[in-house]
Specification:
Largest sheet: 2 strands, parallel
Distance between the termini: 38 Å
Order of helices and strands: HEHHE
Number of strands: 2
Structural class: mainly alpha
Radius of gyration: 16 Å
Strand content: 5-15%
């Protein structure tokens, strides 16, 4: 995040694209979804606040939420 802010970017995404049941259940850690998503958001917000302190400009953190890896069109799951 710091490198993006250093180049002048005003908004960054969290690193939480894969923090969902579909992905994390494959690794047996789907019970940690909330913990991991919160930690990813907290890290990004902390870095945004640090960047704001350097020049007073407001920075934004955008939550990233991916679709997972189970695609009905490929038969991995159903729409139900």
């Amino acid at each position: 995040h710091d490198a993006y802010f250093a180049t002048g970017i005003d908004a960054v995404e969290t690193n939480t694209f894969g923090a969902n049941w579909s992905n994390l259940s494959d690794y047996g850690i789907d019970d940690r979804i909330e913990e991991l998503a919160n930690k990813g958001a907290r890290i990004a917000r902390e870095r945004a606040e640090a960047a704001e302190e350097t020049d007073g400009r407001m920075r934004w953190v955008l939550g990233s939420m991916g679709p997972g890896t189970k695609l009905p069109s490929l038969g991995h799951t159903t729409y139900e």
